[in-house]
Amino acid sequence: MVSIYQYLDYRKFLLDYYEEKKRTTKTMSYRNFARAAGLAGWNYLKLVVDGKRNLSASSIAKFAKALKLKKRETDFFSILVSMNQSSDPEEKSRYYEKLMTFRRFNEIHRMENDIYQLLSRWYIAAVHELVALPDFDTDPRWIAQQLRPNITIAEAKKALEILQHLGLIKIDREKNMTVQTKGHFATPDQVSGIAIFNFQKEMLALAHNALRYRSSRIRDISGLTIALSPEGFDTAKDMIREFRRGLHAKLATGGQPTAVYQLNFQIFPLSEVKATRAAPSE
Questions:
Q1: N or C: which end of the chain has fewer CB within 10 A?
Q2: H-run or E-run covering 60
């Protein structure tokens, strides 16, 4: 049977549920589903699956009834629908973290949840880079005290756990040695989009703190205000991308590291972005 806890997309869940029931139950049809849910439109399920309709709070309850979901499953379904239908990244993040409170979801999606936390929490990536320091210590107390701002001991422990589970570090306690390794994993779009928003938001906040509290001797924050055409904007993005890659390759072989830094690249509009008309065909 299709389990709701397997899914990050409620429309995919509905499609798989319908197709499975269609194979195993002769009476399954869009019309019969609508009747079981108490829906007026006979093809409402198809419209939702195709992304042409959203579910309201009342229709969520009707769908849960037709799907024969239990109370806990209905709660999960409702949160999943809300997350998928929201266009606000912060709101989507709150819904995803609610999904993570469901034990069955965590059991099935542990990898995705760890990736979400890796990409969402600034300090996990920072701990990964901290490993490259020659005096790195796996003691969570030491790790917590090294980062700025300080993190909690519990957060340091969680960071080590996630980095190990994702194969990004390897700890040899007998030799008292920790090394960075290359983990391989794919990130579902529903997870990566939310997580990357969280990461960038946290890094912008940390940049603000650095501007206020860190000496200019150990930071560099600058900017450029310029009018751009759409082509100029695309060129700027391409140059930033290439510079970032080249700089990373150069700095990776730049001697023994002594601290972890965050380097941000930002380009965003300060005025209304006007749609450009396509050039007339000759």
A1: C
A2: helix 57-67
